[in-house]
Structure formats: structure tokens, C-alpha cells
Prior knowledge:
The protein has no helices and eight strands. It is mainly beta. The chain has one domain. The strands form three sheets. Strands 1-2-3-4 form a four-stranded antiparallel β-sheet, with no helix packed on it. A hairpin with a 4-residue loop joins strand 2 and strand 3.
Amino acid sequence: MNPVSEGNFLTDxxxxxxxxxxxxxxxxxxxxYDGQKWRLTHTxxxxxxxxxxxxxxSHVWAATGNYPVVLxxxxxxxxxxxxxxxxxxxxxxxxxxxxSSGSSPSTPT
Length: 109
């Protein structure tokens, strides 16, 4: 089970089951594993995708970068409410390498 990522690095893997996995990586790459084979999915994204997550196989999100988030609150005393904007920075998870002959992390040589 070795994905062919067309020379791009992979950053994250998520899946609802062991035979239904998604991987993201450099240059906006998204790959999907169907239990038999990894398949490359072309996306319009050219930035690196550092994270992927979903609720099931039909609802999967990949992201990287900075995203503004607006938080709003109101109550009976302040019916028009107040708002504050913050920035969420989605970063890559640490990369861990594992050699096939053991379970200890190992950097590539």
C-alpha cells in the first residue's frame, strides 16, 4: 500500500475505515485509497494541503493556511450582539517516518 503522489510530499491521512482513506499533500494533492489501490484526485488547489478530516466518506475537508473566523454573541441585554474576528491558522502535523523493518521513527536517508 504505497501511494504514488507524482513527486509531491504527503502531509496527512484520514479515513472512515481502513479500506477508505484520503491523503493530502504538496501542491494541492488529494489521494484516495479504496482498499486495493491509491488513486490521485486532481483539485483546483495549488497550495499545500496540510490537514484532512471528515465525518464520513461523503463529507471530507482538506485545508491549509489562515482563515478568519467571526464569533458573534447576543442576549436580551444586547439584542444586536457583538462580534470579534480571529484568525485560525491551520498548520501541518509533524511528519513521522517508519521503516518497514521496524516500528521506530526514522528519517529518510
